[in-house]
Amino acid sequence: MTEITPLFSYTTCLKDVHHISSKECELLEKSGFLTVRDLLFYLPKRYEDRRRFDEFGALGQQKPVCLHVNVIDARTKFAGAKRRYTEVLVEEKGMVKTRFSCIWFNMPMIGKMLCAGHELVLFGTAKKFGKNLCMLHPDFEVVKDDAYHSIHLERIVPVYGGRLGISIRRLREIIWGIFEKLDFSPESDVYEFVPEQTQKEALNLLHFPDSMEQAASMKRRFALEECLGIQLNVGIRRRMVQAKHGFKTASKTALLKDLSEILPFELTAGQKQCIKEIFDDMRSPHVMNRLLQGDVGSGKTLVALCAMLLCVEHGFSSMMMAPTQILAEQHYQQFLRLLTPLGINVSLYTGDKRLDSHVGFKSDPRIIVGTHALLYAKDIEDQVGLVVIDEQHKFGVNQRASLIDRGELCPDVLVMTATPIPRTLTLTVYGDLDVSLLEQMPSGRGEMTTFVRPYSAMKKVVSFVKSQIDEGRQIYVVSPMIEGESKARSVAEDLAYWQKALPKYAVGLLHGKMSSEDKDQVMRDFKANNIQILVSTTVVEVGVDVPNSTVMIINDAERFGLAQLHQLRGRIGRGEHPSYCILVTASDEESEEWAKLKILEETRNGFDLAEKDLQIRGPGDVLGTSQSGLKDVSFGDWIGDIRLIQRAQFLANKILDEDPQLSSKKYRSLRSLLQGDCQKAVIN
Ligand code: ADP
Ligand code: MG
Asked: Of the four listed, 16, 124, 329, 535, which is most buried by Cβ atoms within 10 Å?
């Protein structure tokens, strides 16, 4: 009788997998891989098509190629006193036997590993080294003529990314071996949303595809699965909000008419449209949960103010939360100016109690402007009909939730952001919100031009700045941080620099560690043009409004993301004069950083920038991981794929319509995809 070894399932422990040695098992466990499932979800970083190798001739193309070579010679050499490099001379197998060198700096291990006669698969990009083309630090694998040969050659092979202490080659064998003994029947606790093919079959093809197309299609399948998880969260949140009773405001708009009589300008058509969408929500018994998206300077504040007025007119208070003290104060001042003639009370509520005017919250309906402090303001509990969150991207999802969660009657919520969010992300991270777009800019704005400049051009920059100030304009200088780590220019240095360069003009300093009294004073001086050059950190990023400033100089610009740079430059170009954003960078003209900054020269549209930013940095960085909830995304490519997201949304809604609690046997496993708040909601 032959012994039947049981097949592996997802839950099989790696230590029970015979072809993994105990040493390897230990290493895997250290990296968090305990079960077969853990390892099978360790995804290939890329693939190499080893059925047909590239030719060295193709190396000139500046893109990575995959080559099959023999080692002719390997030696470690010295370059200067301390630097060592290993040079491995190789010869291509195949028809054209080109010889070239592979070079590794300070990795003498490689010199010991490789010697003449070895056969290698190389993956890398050609670079000029001295006069010759060679490969710098290529990935490589020694080809062995053993029983596992067929796993590594003459097929498409997966290449894994991490450093687990196990060679990629060996890892590939381990994973291959698991698939050989895997029980492919569906697991009872996995929701199979592609009925024709089980998740395990799909995983097998993801690791060992027959074609690059198949690899792509499997990636797509898992991306859809991952996306489904996100859409389930979104769907559940949306349902939670819909289940709440909201305020229903009357349709009176007398206050609005009064306001429009005071305003020095007409609302733009875009503003009117957004106001209409918001009012429709507010007048319905449902809770409003809306995102107002508009580029910097598009005039969102007024749209919000109109909504707040409607709320007050109906007899409820309304509050606006801003991300910084400066911004809260600015809104407060503006609202005071506009609303005092209308007889409406405005209050400020921040962490800085000296400035606050938080008296009489319980008396008349009023407009309350504040910072995070509002989150903890117990005394304005239940009379708030509308919550506006300015610059939503500065807050986390949870903060939004805690502002809104005010008991039985849920306030309407309007969140605003000037970070243009690519539509695909709106559907995911903000999928529980309806969206209003403010695309049109108020008229009468001067042109803005953006330049990228090296530090060596500072002299010219200074004389340009001087000419602008001579014409009466004002200047922002922004630096990445307060006190420099070794390399970063600190604002203090900048202050000294500009004071010395333009001694006739007043240079002011603004950063987050100053007391809000001092900050306020500096901002007031800048607004009054008592200060011509304002040197600051990114505290000027959001919302600050001084239309007379026409130049913004951003130091070490490469340290910022595109979206943030775009936000920053939104501080200028607010008046009638042409304006100039100068991105100063220490990176050289050939570098990726320089190319990234160039995008800002060419693109003024925030949405286009956001798409590009997303491609460059990934969703976590664009939105800040804390609030994106996307930090664990593994198939991140889908982030730009609107059709995939729509499909996932459709599936999620279908599932939730059928089984809102995900309590049936079929869908129960999906609960593991839910984030805390949603999990709580379905289990209750
Ligand atoms: P953001 O959308 O970046 O928050 P703001 O609301 O701060 O923009 O508006 C920027 C500037 O545009 C402010 O000075 C504001 O008074 C002005 N503004 C708003 N709406 C209009 C309009 N319809 N016409 C002219 N200027 C406007
Ligand atoms: Mg604003």
From this structure: 535
